[in-house]
Write a structure and sequence with these properties.
By secondary structure, the chain is an alpha/beta fold. Helix content is 24%, strand content 29%. A hairpin with a 2-residue loop joins β7 and β8. It is globular and about 40 Å long. The termini are far apart.
């Protein structure tokens, strides 16, 4: 029996034992960097993906969905084709979004400056993007993660994060070097 993507995701939501979550943001239509990130996630055995926004165009989101790893995300400030993006991923919305994965409450938002304190307090993990700067830190007992710049257009470094909900830790990895001219 083959499980559908929706069935698999529903099963993952029910699991409270922890899981590995791949996190990317600000991919900005960079298909080569996105492919490198997806290879990294597949090799690491991630069970779900979170995207912090700024896919930019539907063709970029389509590439992420081809990985067949359950994906949740939010819109970013550079996502101009929102209708096309939402057709591909109907759960896509403005943040903050509240999810539960691996037994942890996760708040997903593009711009952390827009996060209200009550949303922060209601979460075990906060994931954001927008700044293009990778960051993993603890604040008030919560894990706060920015995977950095998935597209690498600004810094040349294409970074992602993997969160382990069992240990409530995250690691940043550089997955691709974007040549800047």
């Amino acid at each position: 029996m083959t499980l559908s993507r929706a069935d698999l995701y529903t099963d993952l939501l029910r699991i409270g034992a922890g899981m590995k979550i791949g996190v990317l943001s600000d991919t900005h239509d960079n298909l080569a960097a996105t492919a490198a990130a997806l290879r990294h996630f597949e090799q690491a055995g991630v069970e779900a993906l979170l995207h912090g926004g700024d896919y930019c165009a539907p063709f970029a989101l389509k590439r992420i969905l081809q990985a067949r790893i359950p994906l949740e995300g939010v819109f970013g400030n550079c996502d101009g084709e929102r209708e096309g993006l939402a057709k591909l991923l109907p759960s896509l919305a403005d943040g903050p979004r509240h999810l539960e994965l691996g037994g942890k409450k996760i708040c997903l938002i593009h711009d952390r400056q827009r996060l209200k304190h009550e949303n922060f307090e209601a979460s075990d993990i906060v994931v954001f993007g927008h700044t293009h700067e990778p960051k993993v830190e603890r604040q008030e007992g919560r894990l706060v993660v920015n995977p950095g710049e998935g597209g690498g257009w600004m810094s040349g470094r294409c970074t992602v994060a993997i969160i382990d909900t069992r240990t409530l830790t995250a690691d940043i990895a550089e997955v691709y070097e974007q040549v800047r001219t």
